[in-house]
Model the fold of this input.
Amino acid sequence: MATLPASPSPPWHTNPNPNNNNPNSISIPNPNFHPDQSQTLDFDSLMSPQPQSPSATTTPPLPPSLLQLSFNQDHACFAAATDNGFRIYNCDPFRELFRREFGGGGIAHVEMLFRCNILALVGGGSHPQYPPNKVMIWDDHQGTCIGELSFRAAVRGVRLRRDRIIVVVEQKIFVYNFADLKLLHQIETIANPKGLCSVSHVSESLVLACPGLHKGQIRVEHFALKKTKFISAHDSRIASFALTLDGQLIATASVKGTLIRIYDTDSGTLLQEVRRGANAAEIYSLAFSSTAQWLAVSSDKGTVHVFSLKVNSSGVPENETSQGSSSSSDAAIVPSSSSRSFIKFKGVLPKYFNSEWSVARFHLHEGTQYTVAFGVQKNTVIILGMDGSFYRCQFDAANGGEMTQLEHHNILIPETAL
Done:
């Protein structure tokens, strides 16, 4: 159920439409988005006045507990949901942009919309700021909620596009029009406690991926084409997946966590298979680079892997364009001196040896949940940890190997306190 708070004037910024003759209609801001998808907001103007520095005898307050970390759509910023509010950070250069604290009220989910003033909030923690079954639309210019969406079950996840709000509950996904909070679509899913859902961010098309109704199945909705594609991605339950910005490719991982598969979302064709490792692992996140040349993977093994993708912009494996009909899953990253002998035994060796391995990796603390994304600078990876850690690393695209750590911060502790 969508509701808007009572107000003598529309709580959303007005956007008069001369073709709309309905006097009761409410237009929700778009808020002056630029076509280059890089809306910029002056975050410094939103900063609350900072309190004076405590005296030397004052005990500094304990840092809040993290409940969620999430990147914005272009991975230039990220949001931290805490047990007393939320904070927004810039990735490169790293700095806290602003924070909102609610006097002990917790936020379980905070979803940014690029760099604009509109965010989606869901209450959580031991003392939720808002009911966990509601999505609150927050306008940080006004410093208040300007709309809400209510559900019968707890909200597991929220995704924002410039034209849509996608809300995930345990076994259903709701798609709303951003302009008027009108419900457009409902999608049934298998049990989805992690709130798995991914959407494209190219304005010309809307592609949504979510769990299907069967174990190991991915459902892909091509709304512009009015087409639904079901992909039997794995034999085991789905643990994580991610779309490219245009929604043409999807990377999937199962609860086994050993293999990651890349599919064409239009045809459902398996284009490539890469191997994270030999032992089972919980995959925390997957992320494509903006050009879909690289794929980053984080797991509970404490290692972030970067894989080289052999798929061109048309979704065709590169080795098919140069070597006819050979399958991308038959290729492997091996030393050039042994490549001929390896190909000779192709199809005979176990699949373990046929899988493609990562080009680069970075080792972290095992067991900590990390979220990954590619940075603005070339060949850089941003890593966010639920222990408050922020890493920016760089990998060698030609030689691979261990990544170089460029910087490290604890996002919950001011630099001066370290």
About this structure: Residues 63-154 form a domain with the Thrombin, subunit H fold (CATH 2.40.10). Residues 318-323 form the longest helix (6 residues). The mean pLDDT is 80.
